[in-house]
Amino acid sequence: MDAEGLGWLLVPLHQLVSWGAAGAMVFGGVVPYIPQYRDIRRTQNAEGFSTYVCLVLLVANILRILF
């Protein structure tokens, strides 16, 4: 098959990969919080929880998305 014959497959595949990468960048910023959230819920103790770490992670992820 030549390149023109695969055009019908490559364009939707490129769009799917593009949407998948964009979704991973948006929702990937939440993933590091899940184990900490589960631990706080399980132990009912927020000792050691730092709001400054959350702030740094949020700013870093927002800048990553904007970049």
Automatic annotation (TrEMBL):
Gene3D superfamilies the UniProt entry points to: 1.20.1280.290
Source taxonomy: Eukaryota, Metazoa, Chordata, Craniata, Vertebrata
Gene Ontology biological process: phospholipid translocation; retrograde transport, endosome to Golgi
Pfam families in alphabetical order: PQ-loop (PF04193)
Transmembrane stretches, start-end: 16-34, 46-66
Name of the molecule in the record: Solute carrier family 66 member 2
Domain of life according to the entry: Eukaryota
A GO cellular component entry from the record: endosome
Keyword Manganese: no
Subcellular location per the Swiss-Prot or TrEMBL entry: Membrane
InterPro entries: PQ-loop_rpt, SLC66/Scramblase_ANY1
Membrane topology designation: Multi-pass membrane protein
